[in-house]
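Quick illustration for those who missed Monday's session on complexes.
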Amino acid sequence: MPEGSLYRMAAADINAAVVFEKVSKSFGSHVVLNEVSLLIPKGAIMVMLGPSGTGKSVLLRCLVGLIKPDSGRILVFNEDLTRLDDQRSADRHKLFALRRRFGMLFQDGALFDDMSVGDNVAFPMRQHTKMSEPEIRARVAENLERVGLPGTERKMVSELSGGMRKRAAFARAIALRPDIVLCDEPSSGLDPVMSATLDDLILELHRTLGMTFIVISHDTAEARAIATHIGLLYQGKLQVFGEAHTVLQSSHAHVRQFFERNTQGPIKVL
Ligand SMILES: Nc1ncnc2c1ncn2[C@@H]1O[C@H](COP(=O)(O)OP(=O)(O)OP(=O)(O)O)[C@@H](O)[C@H]1O
Ligand SMILES: [Mg+2]
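Prediction with magnesium ion bound:
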């Protein structure tokens, strides 16, 4: 891995959407992230691979400020998130402004089951904007159309299949037209055709809305299909990070084991 100093220089790069500089996080004695450094350029689709329990969701939660790292810096559009203190009102303002630049597709979808699909997608707009109801309804309809669920506003979330839930959650994640969309395992639990449909959706949103995507996944096929950049997290360390074509051709043992679905290699099954 390049040293932190390289990232410090690169952090001034206006093309960086997100920079991690030696970010560490432990829970008690359990080191989950160990000096993770990376730079995600604006407009990238970064796929972060890694076995279960390796800290991928913790990394995303640090990025949106839900978990504070023990050390290191996280820059989002050159603003140092880790220096902002949500107890101070000036910082709180900045923190909220930064958070609004993120759309989050949670691992479990996190839709409100007792609300309609339309109300779920409208929720962030009603919470965070002064958009009028007709504007909100138009945006909800547009987003549902984009994710292939046109006219489902009145359906209850509890009536939806798993794949439909993911797509509705997507429509909500992009409601505020975020600059960065974080997707925590968008394809987990879905059949291969539905997974491929979600990958197409990411590519389509990327192409038409120009968003930066950070996608957490176990799925190497998904990485091959959509990634411009690939990272592999294991035992708290970012073992590999780089442009997708370089990583895919790399002979790095972790990468080969992961992509070749090999039980033998540095990644141990616990
Ligand atoms: N709030 C917390 N308190 C204590 N330990 C935590 C907390 N959040 C996560 N962990 C631990 O951190 C480790 C990494 O968890 P994380 O959810 O990031 O894994 P993951 O890579 O997303 O796994 P999966 O692929 O199964 O979703 C786990 O051992 C987990 O138990
Ligand atoms: Mg996870």
